[in-house]
C-alpha cells in the first residue's frame, strides 16, 4: 500500500491534481493517453482494490 500511496502523491504533486479529480477527468477522456496517466490510473485502481480486500484478508488471518 505504501508504494501505491507514494506513487499517487508524486503524480498529484507533478500534475497539481488530486487523484480523484484525475480519475474523473481520465475516465471522461479529458486527460490524453500519456504513459504517466495510465500508470496513475492503474496505481489508483490497485490501491482502491487493496483497500477493499484488506479487511477480508485480515479477518481470514485472525
Strand content: under 5%
| Order of helical and strand elements | HHH
Mean pLDDT: 92
Which regions contain 5 or more consecutive residues with pLDDT less than 50? none
SS-based structural class?
A: mainly alpha
Enumerate how many helices there are, as a single number.
Answer: 3
Described by strand count, sense and barrel closure, the largest sheet is: none
The gross shape turns out to be elongated
Structure report:
It is a single chain. By secondary structure, the chain is mainly α. The protein has one domain. The chain is 81% helix and 0% strand. The protein contains three helices and no strands. Helix 1 packs antiparallel against helix 3 and helix 2 crosses helix 3. The chain starts with a helix and ends with a helix.
